Amino acid sequence: MALHNENTGHSVALSVSDASVWCYSCDSYITSPAIAKLTKRLGDIKFPEVDVIDAKPEGKSSPDENVSPSVFRALEDLTYAGLVAGLQDKKYQKIVFLTGAGISVAAGIPDLRTPGTGLYAKVAELGLPYPEAIFSLDFLKKDPSPFFKIANGFLTYKANPVKSHYFIKKVADEGMLLMNFTQNIDGLELDAGLPFEKLVQAHGHMRTARCCECSVSVPIAEFFEAVAQETPLYCTVCEVSEAERSVEQPRGIIKPDIVFFGENLPMSFLSNARKISEADLVFVMGTSLKVFPFAGLLDLIQPKVPIVLVNREDPGRIDRGRHPVIFLEGEIEENLAKLVDDVGWELDKPFQSGEKA
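Structure for Deacetylase sirtuin-type domain-containing protein, as requested:
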């Protein structure tokens, strides 16, 4: 895409990896209502296992028929004061969180897309054909070296939970959490004490590793040993067919159980996705809502259910004609600290920054 831009001057490109739109002229991702419809449609086509087109809860003939009153008790003119009061009074009993890399930035873990500091900006130095190639299964099989190089730092960073994670845990402790869907692989929600059954890691996790050919499980410690040496780890069990075998890649490559482009999302996501249609309040925190099918979860939220957007920027994907929205713009940790104080809660632990492994 970069070469095409140089040769033709066509600066806007649509990534078929994650349905995002990039402008080479302004060196940034771009969004608009029209682009949101385009990327949603591409996501629906590419990931048909999660149907977010005309989605309806099971047993419901339409979003407005036979729906529990708790789903529609949201006020059209929901205010910040109303949100605080609702949390204090436990008005909301089925809160859902949609979270992304932005909630872990305060822990020292870089996000993917922030120009200059995000992981995709760093991988540009490795000479990849496009930034997302670092998490492409096809590219990993062709040349695993860049992934193992960038993983030595990005995946070995030791971090502690921050306010975002403890806020989600507090909502669970108050008996108001239905589910936390996250794009993050760091597992800091679990480190904060969130019950395992309340977390869906849509893009996988770092607790286990396996061969991408035969799926044999490998201790995650072995993967990290290879990462520390920035040396690809190959499977010692599976046999690759003679036609596929080469001197450079004699066997399958070991990768952590994180979802690469080209892989299906875990069953935990597919089996729990429709739970969001039961939500009576949704927090969207630290995500650009650019990657499908995760971003398609928005379309499963019932009409009139309020959404609290806690982000540095508005991703432009939330339909304000369908949902009352409160946008807490700016630093996520600061906004959550104020919300916690206003509600009168105390979190389990104070803010702790990450430290290099």
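Residues 49-75, 351-357 have pLDDT under 50 and may be disordered.
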